[in-house]
Write a structure and sequence with these properties.
Shape: elongated
CATH superfamily: Outer membrane protein transport protein (OMPP1/FadL/TodX)
Structural class: mainly beta
CATH class: Mainly Beta
Number of domains: 1
CATH architecture: Beta Barrel
CATH topology: Porin
Largest sheet: 14 strands, antiparallel, barrel
Distance between the termini: 18 Å
Helix content: under 10%
Radius of gyration: 23 Å
Protein backbone atom coordinates (compact mmCIF):
# COMPACT_ATOMS: atom_id res chain seq x y z
CA UNK A 1 0.00 0.00 0.00
CA UNK A 2 2.66 2.40 -1.06
CA UNK A 3 1.95 6.14 -0.89
CA UNK A 4 3.40 8.43 -3.55
CA UNK A 5 2.89 12.03 -4.53
CA UNK A 6 0.71 12.34 -7.58
CA UNK A 7 2.30 13.43 -10.83
CA UNK A 8 0.15 14.16 -13.86
CA UNK A 9 -0.85 11.23 -16.00
CA UNK A 10 -2.12 11.48 -19.54
CA UNK A 11 -4.80 8.82 -19.69
CA UNK A 12 -8.33 10.30 -19.80
CA UNK A 13 -11.65 8.56 -20.44
CA UNK A 14 -15.28 9.45 -20.01
CA UNK A 15 -16.89 7.70 -17.03
CA UNK A 16 -20.28 6.14 -16.63
CA UNK A 17 -20.64 7.17 -13.01
CA UNK A 18 -24.02 8.91 -13.32
CA UNK A 19 -25.85 5.85 -14.67
CA UNK A 20 -24.15 3.54 -12.18
CA UNK A 21 -25.06 5.87 -9.32
CA UNK A 22 -28.70 5.85 -10.33
CA UNK A 23 -28.67 2.05 -10.63
CA UNK A 24 -27.20 1.61 -7.17
CA UNK A 25 -29.70 3.98 -5.58
CA UNK A 26 -32.60 2.24 -7.30
CA UNK A 27 -31.38 -1.15 -6.11
CA UNK A 28 -30.63 -0.27 -2.51
CA UNK A 29 -32.45 -2.57 -0.10
CA UNK A 30 -32.54 -3.08 3.61
CA UNK A 31 -30.92 -0.75 6.08
CA UNK A 32 -27.59 -0.57 7.80
CA UNK A 33 -27.48 -1.18 11.52
CA UNK A 34 -24.78 1.19 12.61
CA UNK A 35 -22.27 0.56 15.35
CA UNK A 36 -21.05 4.03 16.37
CA UNK A 37 -24.59 4.69 17.64
CA UNK A 38 -26.35 5.30 14.28
CA UNK A 39 -23.16 5.69 12.20
CA UNK A 40 -21.25 3.00 10.32
CA UNK A 41 -17.64 2.58 11.43
CA UNK A 42 -16.02 3.51 8.12
CA UNK A 43 -16.81 4.04 4.45
CA UNK A 44 -15.44 1.76 1.78
CA UNK A 45 -13.67 -1.56 2.26
CA UNK A 46 -10.20 -0.03 2.73
CA UNK A 47 -11.23 2.16 5.66
CA UNK A 48 -13.58 -0.45 7.17
CA UNK A 49 -10.85 -3.10 7.26
CA UNK A 50 -8.49 -0.65 9.02
CA UNK A 51 -10.79 0.14 11.93
CA UNK A 52 -12.46 3.03 10.12
CA UNK A 53 -9.31 5.17 9.79
CA UNK A 54 -9.49 7.37 6.68
CA UNK A 55 -8.51 10.98 7.52
CA UNK A 56 -4.87 11.10 6.43
CA UNK A 57 -4.39 8.61 3.59
CA UNK A 58 -5.90 7.52 0.29
CA UNK A 59 -8.86 5.16 0.72
CA UNK A 60 -10.13 5.67 -2.81
CA UNK A 61 -13.32 7.52 -3.82
CA UNK A 62 -14.98 6.52 -0.53
CA UNK A 63 -12.59 8.88 1.24
CA UNK A 64 -14.83 11.83 0.37
CA UNK A 65 -17.22 10.67 3.12
CA UNK A 66 -14.59 11.23 5.82
CA UNK A 67 -12.12 13.76 4.43
CA UNK A 68 -12.69 15.17 0.91
CA UNK A 69 -9.06 16.41 0.80
CA UNK A 70 -7.88 12.80 0.41
CA UNK A 71 -9.27 12.75 -3.14
CA UNK A 72 -6.12 14.63 -4.22
CA UNK A 73 -4.00 11.71 -3.04
CA UNK A 74 -5.28 9.43 -5.81
CA UNK A 75 -2.59 8.10 -8.14
CA UNK A 76 -4.79 8.07 -11.27
CA UNK A 77 -6.95 10.66 -12.96
CA UNK A 78 -10.20 8.71 -12.58
CA UNK A 79 -11.57 6.13 -10.16
CA UNK A 80 -14.93 4.38 -10.04
CA UNK A 81 -16.09 2.37 -7.02
CA UNK A 82 -19.05 0.01 -6.75
CA UNK A 83 -19.72 -2.02 -3.62
CA UNK A 84 -22.16 -3.23 -1.02
CA UNK A 85 -22.40 -3.26 2.79
CA UNK A 86 -23.90 -6.29 4.54
CA UNK A 87 -24.75 -6.18 8.25
CA UNK A 88 -25.96 -9.07 10.42
CA UNK A 89 -27.04 -8.37 13.98
CA UNK A 90 -27.39 -10.39 17.18
CA UNK A 91 -29.72 -8.49 19.53
CA UNK A 92 -31.41 -9.91 22.62
CA UNK A 93 -33.63 -8.26 25.25
CA UNK A 94 -34.31 -9.88 28.62
CA UNK A 95 -36.96 -8.97 31.16
CA UNK A 96 -34.97 -8.93 34.40
CA UNK A 97 -38.09 -9.47 36.52
CA UNK A 98 -39.83 -12.31 34.70
CA UNK A 99 -36.86 -13.91 32.97
CA UNK A 100 -38.60 -13.65 29.58
CA UNK A 101 -36.41 -12.84 26.61
CA UNK A 102 -36.77 -12.02 22.92
CA UNK A 103 -34.32 -11.85 20.04
CA UNK A 104 -34.46 -9.49 17.10
CA UNK A 105 -35.00 -11.54 13.96
CA UNK A 106 -36.55 -11.47 10.52
CA UNK A 107 -40.28 -11.35 11.31
CA UNK A 108 -41.02 -8.87 8.53
CA UNK A 109 -40.13 -8.11 4.93
CA UNK A 110 -37.70 -5.26 5.54
CA UNK A 111 -35.55 -6.44 8.45
CA UNK A 112 -32.09 -8.06 8.54
CA UNK A 113 -29.72 -8.94 7.28
CA UNK A 114 -29.29 -5.33 6.25
CA UNK A 115 -27.52 -4.24 3.10
CA UNK A 116 -26.88 -0.95 1.38
CA UNK A 117 -24.96 0.36 -1.65
CA UNK A 118 -21.62 2.04 -2.09
CA UNK A 119 -20.99 3.82 -5.38
CA UNK A 120 -18.63 6.70 -6.17
CA UNK A 121 -16.72 8.32 -9.00
CA UNK A 122 -13.79 10.75 -8.75
CA UNK A 123 -11.99 12.67 -11.50
CA UNK A 124 -8.87 14.85 -11.53
CA UNK A 125 -8.85 18.04 -13.60
CA UNK A 126 -5.53 19.86 -13.24
CA UNK A 127 -4.92 20.51 -9.56
CA UNK A 128 -8.58 19.83 -8.76
CA UNK A 129 -10.20 16.47 -8.02
CA UNK A 130 -13.97 16.11 -7.98
CA UNK A 131 -16.08 13.30 -6.56
CA UNK A 132 -19.70 12.17 -6.38
CA UNK A 133 -21.17 9.10 -4.74
CA UNK A 134 -23.84 7.42 -2.64
CA UNK A 135 -23.24 5.72 0.69
CA UNK A 136 -25.29 4.49 3.61
CA UNK A 137 -24.11 6.65 6.51
CA UNK A 138 -25.77 4.35 9.00
CA UNK A 139 -29.01 3.46 10.70
CA UNK A 140 -30.43 0.70 12.88
CA UNK A 141 -32.86 -2.16 12.70
CA UNK A 142 -34.71 -4.37 15.20
CA UNK A 143 -37.62 -6.80 14.88
CA UNK A 144 -39.16 -8.26 18.04
CA UNK A 145 -42.49 -9.41 16.63
CA UNK A 146 -45.92 -9.31 18.26
CA UNK A 147 -45.85 -11.97 20.96
CA UNK A 148 -42.97 -11.14 23.32
CA UNK A 149 -43.13 -9.40 26.69
CA UNK A 150 -42.46 -6.14 24.81
CA UNK A 151 -45.99 -6.48 23.36
CA UNK A 152 -47.62 -6.71 26.78
CA UNK A 153 -49.26 -3.57 28.14
CA UNK A 154 -49.49 -2.66 31.83
CA UNK A 155 -50.90 -5.51 33.89
CA UNK A 156 -49.52 -8.14 31.53
CA UNK A 157 -52.22 -7.52 28.90
CA UNK A 158 -51.28 -9.17 25.59
CA UNK A 159 -51.81 -6.70 22.75
CA UNK A 160 -50.47 -8.53 19.69
CA UNK A 161 -48.92 -5.23 18.64
CA UNK A 162 -45.53 -5.13 16.98
CA UNK A 163 -42.28 -3.73 18.41
CA UNK A 164 -39.67 -2.96 15.76
CA UNK A 165 -37.53 -0.21 14.25
CA UNK A 166 -35.65 0.70 11.11
CA UNK A 167 -33.61 3.82 10.41
CA UNK A 168 -31.71 4.35 7.16
CA UNK A 169 -29.50 7.39 6.53
CA UNK A 170 -28.28 7.72 2.94
CA UNK A 171 -25.73 10.34 1.87
CA UNK A 172 -25.08 11.46 -1.71
CA UNK A 173 -21.82 13.46 -1.48
CA UNK A 174 -20.54 15.98 -3.99
CA UNK A 175 -16.93 16.85 -3.11
CA UNK A 176 -13.95 18.77 -4.45
CA UNK A 177 -10.26 18.67 -3.45
CA UNK A 178 -7.45 21.03 -4.44
CA UNK A 179 -3.72 20.34 -4.34
CA UNK A 180 -2.24 23.57 -2.96
CA UNK A 181 1.32 22.24 -3.00
CA UNK A 182 3.19 18.94 -3.03
CA UNK A 183 2.51 18.73 0.72
CA UNK A 184 -0.89 20.38 1.25
CA UNK A 185 -4.34 19.37 0.00
CA UNK A 186 -7.66 20.93 0.98
CA UNK A 187 -11.19 19.82 0.25
CA UNK A 188 -14.87 20.46 0.87
CA UNK A 189 -18.13 18.80 0.09
CA UNK A 190 -21.84 18.83 0.61
CA UNK A 191 -24.05 15.76 0.84
CA UNK A 192 -27.67 15.42 -0.12
CA UNK A 193 -28.96 13.47 2.89
CA UNK A 194 -32.06 11.31 3.08
CA UNK A 195 -33.45 9.75 6.26
CA UNK A 196 -36.20 7.20 6.53
CA UNK A 197 -37.64 5.63 9.66
CA UNK A 198 -40.00 2.78 10.52
CA UNK A 199 -41.12 2.41 14.12
CA UNK A 200 -43.55 0.21 16.05
CA UNK A 201 -43.43 1.05 19.75
CA UNK A 202 -45.69 0.08 22.65
CA UNK A 203 -45.59 2.28 25.76
CA UNK A 204 -47.22 0.94 28.92
CA UNK A 205 -49.59 3.09 30.96
CA UNK A 206 -46.85 3.63 33.53
CA UNK A 207 -44.53 4.90 30.78
CA UNK A 208 -47.25 7.22 29.46
CA UNK A 209 -47.91 8.44 32.99
CA UNK A 210 -44.20 9.10 33.56
CA UNK A 211 -44.00 11.12 30.34
CA UNK A 212 -47.06 13.13 31.34
CA UNK A 213 -45.72 13.70 34.85
CA UNK A 214 -42.43 14.93 33.41
CA UNK A 215 -44.21 17.47 31.18
CA UNK A 216 -43.24 15.52 28.06
CA UNK A 217 -46.75 15.08 26.62
CA UNK A 218 -49.08 17.80 25.38
CA UNK A 219 -51.94 18.25 22.92
CA UNK A 220 -55.71 18.04 22.65
CA UNK A 221 -55.72 14.22 22.52
CA UNK A 222 -54.25 13.96 26.01
CA UNK A 223 -57.63 14.35 27.79
CA UNK A 224 -59.08 11.73 25.41
CA UNK A 225 -56.47 9.18 26.50
CA UNK A 226 -56.97 10.17 30.12
CA UNK A 227 -60.72 9.66 29.78
CA UNK A 228 -60.49 5.97 28.88
CA UNK A 229 -61.83 3.78 31.71
CA UNK A 230 -58.80 1.46 32.04
CA UNK A 231 -55.85 2.77 29.97
CA UNK A 232 -53.10 0.15 29.72
CA UNK A 233 -50.82 1.68 27.08
CA UNK A 234 -50.36 3.46 23.77
CA UNK A 235 -48.82 2.10 20.57
CA UNK A 236 -47.31 4.04 17.67
CA UNK A 237 -47.04 2.37 14.27
CA UNK A 238 -45.31 4.19 11.40
CA UNK A 239 -44.00 1.48 9.10
CA UNK A 240 -43.91 0.58 5.41
CA UNK A 241 -42.78 -2.93 4.48
CA UNK A 242 -40.69 -1.72 1.57
CA UNK A 243 -36.98 -2.23 0.81
CA UNK A 244 -36.21 1.52 0.97
CA UNK A 245 -39.38 3.58 1.42
CA UNK A 246 -40.15 4.15 5.10
CA UNK A 247 -43.05 5.17 7.28
CA UNK A 248 -41.58 8.67 7.57
CA UNK A 249 -38.78 10.27 5.58
CA UNK A 250 -37.16 13.56 4.68
CA UNK A 251 -34.33 15.16 2.67
CA UNK A 252 -31.67 17.64 3.71
CA UNK A 253 -27.95 18.31 3.46
CA UNK A 254 -24.70 17.76 5.35
CA UNK A 255 -21.56 19.94 4.88
CA UNK A 256 -17.94 18.74 5.15
CA UNK A 257 -14.40 20.24 4.95
CA UNK A 258 -10.92 18.77 5.33
CA UNK A 259 -7.20 18.98 4.70
CA UNK A 260 -4.07 16.83 4.63
CA UNK A 261 -0.42 17.81 5.04
CA UNK A 262 2.67 15.70 4.31
CA UNK A 263 5.66 16.27 6.55
CA UNK A 264 7.59 13.83 4.36
CA UNK A 265 6.91 11.18 1.74
CA UNK A 266 6.25 8.75 4.61
CA UNK A 267 4.26 10.86 7.11
CA UNK A 268 0.97 12.62 6.51
CA UNK A 269 -1.56 14.18 8.88
CA UNK A 270 -5.15 15.11 8.20
CA UNK A 271 -8.12 16.89 9.73
CA UNK A 272 -11.75 16.95 8.69
CA UNK A 273 -14.99 18.33 10.05
CA UNK A 274 -18.44 17.10 9.08
CA UNK A 275 -21.17 19.46 10.18
CA UNK A 276 -24.42 18.32 11.74
CA UNK A 277 -27.06 17.40 9.20
CA UNK A 278 -29.82 19.79 8.22
CA UNK A 279 -32.72 17.47 7.41
CA UNK A 280 -36.39 18.44 7.38
CA UNK A 281 -38.85 16.87 9.79
CA UNK A 282 -39.59 13.25 8.81
CA UNK A 283 -43.30 12.98 8.03
CA UNK A 284 -45.78 10.30 7.00
CA UNK A 285 -48.87 8.30 7.95
CA UNK A 286 -49.20 6.56 11.31
CA UNK A 287 -51.62 4.81 13.63
CA UNK A 288 -51.87 5.68 17.33
CA UNK A 289 -53.61 2.85 19.19
CA UNK A 290 -54.85 3.38 22.72
CA UNK A 291 -54.93 0.07 24.64
CA UNK A 292 -57.68 -0.13 27.28
CA UNK A 293 -58.50 -3.02 29.59
CA UNK A 294 -62.25 -2.51 29.11
CA UNK A 295 -62.70 -0.77 25.75
CA UNK A 296 -60.04 -2.85 23.98
CA UNK A 297 -57.86 -1.27 21.31
CA UNK A 298 -58.87 2.14 19.95
CA UNK A 299 -56.87 3.00 16.78
CA UNK A 300 -56.55 6.58 15.52
CA UNK A 301 -55.29 7.19 11.99
CA UNK A 302 -53.37 10.34 11.21
CA UNK A 303 -50.13 12.01 10.22
CA UNK A 304 -46.97 11.85 12.25
CA UNK A 305 -43.82 13.93 12.31
CA UNK A 306 -40.41 13.07 13.78
CA UNK A 307 -39.07 16.56 14.32
CA UNK A 308 -35.50 17.80 14.06
CA UNK A 309 -33.95 14.32 13.96
CA UNK A 310 -30.36 15.05 12.88
CA UNK A 311 -27.01 13.30 12.52
CA UNK A 312 -24.25 14.86 14.65
CA UNK A 313 -21.20 16.93 13.73
CA UNK A 314 -17.93 14.95 13.66
CA UNK A 315 -14.32 16.17 14.06
CA UNK A 316 -11.64 13.79 12.72
CA UNK A 317 -7.87 14.06 13.28
CA UNK A 318 -5.65 11.50 11.59
CA UNK A 319 -2.09 10.45 10.82
CA UNK A 320 -0.64 7.88 8.44
CA UNK A 321 2.92 6.52 8.43
CA UNK A 322 4.55 4.45 5.72
CA UNK A 323 6.92 2.35 7.79
CA UNK A 324 8.57 0.76 4.76
CA UNK A 325 7.75 -0.20 1.18
CA UNK A 326 5.21 -2.78 2.38
CA UNK A 327 3.75 -1.57 5.68
CA UNK A 328 1.52 1.46 6.28
CA UNK A 329 -0.03 2.36 9.64
CA UNK A 330 -2.87 4.82 10.27
CA UNK A 331 -4.75 6.25 13.23
CA UNK A 332 -7.82 8.47 13.56
CA UNK A 333 -9.16 10.23 16.64
CA UNK A 334 -12.76 11.37 16.30
CA UNK A 335 -15.14 13.42 18.40
CA UNK A 336 -18.85 12.92 17.65
CA UNK A 337 -21.15 15.61 19.02
CA UNK A 338 -24.26 13.63 19.86
CA UNK A 339 -25.36 15.82 22.77
CA UNK A 340 -26.37 18.67 20.47
CA UNK A 341 -28.71 16.57 18.31
CA UNK A 342 -30.00 13.68 20.42
CA UNK A 343 -31.49 15.12 23.59
CA UNK A 344 -35.06 14.00 22.80
CA UNK A 345 -36.91 12.17 20.05
CA UNK A 346 -39.67 14.65 19.22
CA UNK A 347 -42.91 13.09 18.00
CA UNK A 348 -45.95 14.99 16.77
CA UNK A 349 -49.22 13.24 15.84
CA UNK A 350 -52.32 14.78 14.22
CA UNK A 351 -55.41 12.58 14.01
CA UNK A 352 -57.49 12.62 10.84
CA UNK A 353 -60.60 13.27 12.88
CA UNK A 354 -59.04 16.17 14.74
CA UNK A 355 -56.79 16.49 17.75
CA UNK A 356 -53.06 16.28 18.23
CA UNK A 357 -50.47 14.79 20.55
CA UNK A 358 -46.86 15.88 21.09
CA UNK A 359 -44.35 13.65 22.89
CA UNK A 360 -40.71 14.11 23.87
CA UNK A 361 -38.98 10.75 24.34
CA UNK A 362 -35.79 11.35 26.37
CA UNK A 363 -32.42 10.21 24.98
CA UNK A 364 -29.75 12.55 26.45
CA UNK A 365 -26.86 11.15 24.40
CA UNK A 366 -23.35 12.16 25.38
CA UNK A 367 -20.58 13.29 23.05
CA UNK A 368 -18.43 10.38 21.94
CA UNK A 369 -14.67 10.00 21.42
CA UNK A 370 -13.52 7.24 19.05
CA UNK A 371 -10.03 5.87 18.39
CA UNK A 372 -9.39 3.94 15.16
CA UNK A 373 -6.12 2.10 14.52
CA UNK A 374 -5.26 0.27 11.31
CA UNK A 375 -2.48 -1.19 9.24
CA UNK A 376 -1.96 -2.46 5.68
CA UNK A 377 0.72 -4.91 4.53
CA UNK A 378 1.46 -5.19 0.81
CA UNK A 379 2.25 -8.89 0.37
CA UNK A 380 3.16 -8.65 -3.30
CA UNK A 381 2.16 -6.79 -6.44
CA UNK A 382 -1.39 -8.15 -6.22
CA UNK A 383 -2.27 -8.81 -2.57
CA UNK A 384 -2.63 -6.41 0.35
CA UNK A 385 -3.86 -7.52 3.77
CA UNK A 386 -5.34 -5.10 6.31
CA UNK A 387 -6.46 -5.08 9.90
CA UNK A 388 -7.62 -2.68 12.57
CA UNK A 389 -9.29 -1.98 15.90
CA UNK A 390 -11.86 0.62 16.89
CA UNK A 391 -12.82 1.73 20.39
CA UNK A 392 -15.59 4.21 21.20
CA UNK A 393 -16.95 5.77 24.37
CA UNK A 394 -20.55 4.92 25.21
CA UNK A 395 -22.87 7.69 24.02
CA UNK A 396 -26.18 6.32 25.31
CA UNK A 397 -27.05 6.61 29.02
CA UNK A 398 -28.52 3.37 30.38
CA UNK A 399 -31.48 5.24 31.88
CA UNK A 400 -32.78 6.22 28.41
CA UNK A 401 -32.23 2.90 26.60
CA UNK A 402 -35.13 1.69 24.44
CA UNK A 403 -35.33 -2.02 23.54
CA UNK A 404 -36.04 -1.03 19.92
CA UNK A 405 -33.06 1.37 19.74
CA UNK A 406 -30.06 -0.67 21.03
CA UNK A 407 -27.29 1.56 19.70
CA UNK A 408 -24.70 0.39 22.23
CA UNK A 409 -21.70 -1.51 20.67
CA UNK A 410 -18.36 0.21 21.30
CA UNK A 411 -15.48 -2.12 20.32
CA UNK A 412 -14.68 -3.46 16.85
CA UNK A 413 -12.08 -5.75 15.37
CA UNK A 414 -11.64 -5.56 11.59
CA UNK A 415 -9.73 -7.36 8.86
CA UNK A 416 -9.69 -7.46 5.10
CA UNK A 417 -7.71 -7.66 1.90
CA UNK A 418 -7.23 -6.05 -1.47
CA UNK A 419 -6.54 -7.94 -4.68
CA UNK A 420 -5.31 -6.26 -7.86
CA UNK A 421 -7.30 -7.94 -10.62
CA UNK A 422 -5.36 -5.98 -13.22
CA UNK A 423 -3.23 -2.86 -13.50
CA UNK A 424 -6.42 -0.78 -13.45
CA UNK A 425 -8.85 -2.68 -11.22
CA UNK A 426 -9.00 -4.17 -7.75
CA UNK A 427 -11.37 -5.95 -5.41
CA UNK A 428 -11.38 -5.06 -1.71
CA UNK A 429 -13.09 -6.92 1.12
CA UNK A 430 -13.56 -5.93 4.75
CA UNK A 431 -15.05 -7.68 7.77
CA UNK A 432 -15.77 -5.88 11.04
CA UNK A 433 -16.97 -7.52 14.25
CA UNK A 434 -18.70 -5.48 16.95
CA UNK A 435 -18.09 -7.25 20.25
CA UNK A 436 -21.17 -7.90 22.36
CA UNK A 437 -22.16 -5.02 24.57
CA UNK A 438 -24.85 -5.26 27.27
CA UNK A 439 -26.77 -2.50 29.03
CA UNK A 440 -29.46 -2.50 31.72
CA UNK A 441 -32.35 -0.09 32.12
CA UNK A 442 -34.95 -0.13 34.88
CA UNK A 443 -36.00 3.50 34.54
CA UNK A 444 -39.25 5.03 33.37
CA UNK A 445 -40.28 6.32 30.90
CA UNK A 446 -38.28 4.39 28.28
CA UNK A 447 -38.99 0.96 29.75
CA UNK A 448 -41.71 -0.45 31.96
CA UNK A 449 -40.03 -3.70 32.98
CA UNK A 450 -36.34 -3.73 33.95
CA UNK A 451 -34.50 -4.93 30.84
CA UNK A 452 -31.04 -6.03 29.77
CA UNK A 453 -30.17 -5.49 26.10
CA UNK A 454 -27.26 -7.34 24.48
CA UNK A 455 -26.04 -6.40 21.02
CA UNK A 456 -23.28 -7.79 18.80
CA UNK A 457 -22.94 -7.75 15.02
CA UNK A 458 -20.81 -8.47 11.99
CA UNK A 459 -20.38 -6.12 9.02
CA UNK A 460 -18.95 -7.10 5.65
CA UNK A 461 -18.05 -4.85 2.73
CA UNK A 462 -17.15 -5.90 -0.80
CA UNK A 463 -16.08 -3.28 -3.34
CA UNK A 464 -14.74 -3.15 -6.89
CA UNK A 465 -12.61 -0.17 -7.97
CA UNK A 466 -11.61 0.69 -11.53
CA UNK A 467 -8.89 3.30 -11.98
CA UNK A 468 -7.99 4.92 -15.30
Amino acid sequence: MRRRYWKGQGVQRRGVAVSALALALAGATGSASATDVFRLEGFGAVSRSMGGAATAFDTGPAGMMTNPATLSLMQTDNAFLLGVDLVTTDIDVRNQSSGESVSSSNHSANRGPYYAPQVAYSRRVGEWTFGVGAFAQGGLGTEFGRSSFLSKATGGLDTGLENSSRLLVLNIPLAASFRVSEALTVGAGIDATWQGMNLNLLLGADQVGSLIGGGRVSGSLLPVLGGLPDLRGAHFSLTRNSPVASGVGAWGYTPRVGMTYAFSEATRVGAAYTGRSHVSDMEGRATLTAVDGLAGQVPLQGRISIRDFQMPAVLNLGVSQRVNERLTLAADLSRVYWSSVMKDIKVGFSADGGGDLNILLPQNYKDQTILALGGAWQVDSRWTVRGGFRFAQQALPSSTLFAVIPAIPRKHLSAGFGYAVSANSSVDFAWSHAFQESMDNASLPNTSAPIRVSHAQDNATLAYTYRF
